[in-house]
Structures are given as structure tokens and as C-alpha cells.
Design brief:
This protein is α/β, with parallel strands linked by helices. The chain folds into two domains: about 120 residues, Rossmann fold; about 260 residues, P-loop containing nucleotide triphosphate hydrolases (Rossmann fold), CATH 3.40.50.300. Helix 6 packs across helix 17. An eight-stranded mixed sheet has the order 8-9-7-10-6-11-12-13, sandwiched between helices. Strands 2-1-3-4-5 form a five-stranded parallel sheet, sandwiched between helices.
Length: about 425
Amino acid sequence: MAGTVRVILYTTNESSLPDLRRALTSLPQIRLVAEFEEPSMFAQAVAQFPAELLVADLDPNPALVIECLKQLKDTAPDMPIFALSSQSDGAVVLSAMRAGIREYLLKPLNIEEFEQAVGRCVATQTRDREPGKLISIIGSAGGVGCTTIATNLAVELAELVGPHQKVALVDLDFRFGHVATLLDVHGQFTVADLCSTPEELDPQMVQKALVEHSSGVLVLRRPHSFAQAEMITAAHCANVLTTLQEMCAYVVVDGPTRHDPGGRSVLDAADYAFFVIQLLVTSVRNADRVVQELAVQGFNTDRIAFICNRMGRESAHLEVDQVETILNRKLFMTIADDWRSVSSSINVGHPLKTEYERSRIRQDIHSLALKIHAPGEYAAEAAKRGGLLSKFFRKQPASPSTSADAVEPVKTPPVAIGG
């Protein structure tokens, strides 16, 4: 199965939803762009969300769902539909096929059969371009540096893709977001203006709401008021992001800041879900709790990658290898601590690339962008840097006065994370 496959999921079975979501997203190409539970909303969902596949759980009322799917086929005849059901009755299967359902899959879902069916389905589809990659930057706590990383990552990606492709930056901290402040951009419209209607978004409407920074990054600002922030739903978020993916090579999201259905919908659709932590017990504990909760909800936590920010500060005996053991995965990237450069960059409203191009933190965020956009080139650069460093830090023979036996090793006490 080649390329990204965006899936709209319909089900009313809340008890089995986590297992179903986990099974679907176990395939790395699958992105859940929308979930709903009202069969009357089939046509609206397909109109709102660009997708290659609709997966519909027929239970507990196959006849009703099949009838709604039959009506959908009249308005969206090219949308492939897969049906899931615990019923193997021939009459139900025949009725589903007559309604235009492409594949009828029995529960529990056999993921190999599903993958083969998706492969057959996608092989017959053509599309002008792959959707842009969605990158979500979420934090283990407030103040860990998500906005700084998201903003500067978007600027670095814009340079890498060049002038013929676009990078969007979306502020999903609807109350206290500062993406626009960090880039010193201003505009009349915000994400709230795009979320004021449930209908399909017009590209001209989206373009009108975006503010272009001098780097080429297209910025979608947070709402002006708290009241507007309260009106934005999960469906609104997903609709805006999927529309932007149709327009841009990358969509970088500062957020979500809430781990509710709206926040999870962003993570379900993300190609990269970066969790920003620090070498602090509270930060690692929060990260562990969020990951466990997402797993309970059926999110494929293997899709989460961790970025450790502010490396270099006194970590009070908490080391990277301890954090990797606790979180049960290697860190995707570490970013240096450089508060002086960051604070100055924020206060003047310029990205790090403009004011502090040679700073360590800017170089680290550039490496992050390169690892996403051109992993082969990043690996080559990393190997080159490693080779140069090994020449400078080649181990020297110990002299009598500085032998290993003469230096007592530092003992690091254990750090308690659980609880």
C-alpha cells in the first residue's frame, strides 16, 4: 500500500471504538481525518473532509446504515466504502454490495485482510498530488517550548521546500497562542473565521485567512477572543487542517493543547506527532500519563516521537537514557538550551534563522526540519559531524596523574518517575 490513505470512520459502538481505531492506525499509511456517529451525516462528512476511504461500522442496525450509504452513493459515487459487521448473513452482505460497498469485512477486523483490501482500492485511484504532511507539536506542560519549536520549524521547512511549495503554521492554542507574535504578523481573520461554518471550506476563504510571513510561511492565527475559542469543535479543526494539507507541502501545528476528542482528532491525522519534554521529573511524568491515556483511547502511540528541549540545563541527575527507558523509546531529537537567543527572538518578533542563524538552537531546529524533509541527507550530515567530532575528541592514553583508577566515578542516584 503506497502513499497516505485518509480515512473517514463511522461507528456508534463506543466500547469497541478504541480497538478499532488502534487496528486501523496500526498501518503506517492510514490517517483518520474524521470520526462521526450519525448515519445521516455521511454526505456532509465526505464533502467536508478530503479522504480516500470511508469505513462504516454497520452494527447494530445494518439495514439503516446500508440505506444511508446507498443515498451517499448517489451524491459521491466515487467514494470507496468498506463495511464492518459481525453479521455474515448472506442477505445482509448482498444488500451491502448492492448499495455500492466495495469491501465487506467481518469483525474482529483482520488487519491483513484490511491492508490488502485498501491496497486494491487505492491502486485504482488517481490523485494530482499527495496531501501535505501534518506535523503536530504538543507539550508535556506549559512553557516547554512548543511554540518556539513549531514556529521556527515551519520557517526551516519553508526554506527547504523552496518558493514553489508552501508551508502553513496553525495556532491551535485558541486562548493563549502566540504563533503570530513570534513572527510579528497581523491580520483581520483567524482560525475562528474558518470554523464558523460546518460546510466544505472554500480555498479562497482559507487563503484570505492566512497571513504570509517574509519567510514564506502562511500563518493561521488563534481567535481574537475566548468566546470564539469555545465555539471551535474537533470537526472544525480537522476540516481546516485537511484543507490546508491540500494546499501545502507541510502543515505545522502548535498544539493541540487539550487532550480531548478535538485534540486526538489532530493526532489521528498527523504524519508526525512530536511530544516536547524537558529533563524534569514533572515533564516526563506528564508525558507518560498522556501517552497511557491516549493508548486507552485507541490512539497508536507508536506514532508519537519525543523531542527533548533545553538540553544543557542542570537536569538534577535526570539523564537522557533514564527518560528513554521510562518512555520506552529513543528521543527523536534534542534541542539545545539557549534562552538568550530565544527570548531576544521572541521579543523582536523574528525567527531564529533571521537573528541567530549560527546559534546552536537554530542549528538543532534546522536539523529537525532536515530529518523530516530529507532523512537521507540528515543521516549523511549526522555521520559527517560524528566523524569530525571523533577526530577532535579521540581518546588519549591516560597519564599517571590522570589515570582512570585515580578518578572516582560520580554516582547518580535513582530518580522516581512513577506515582
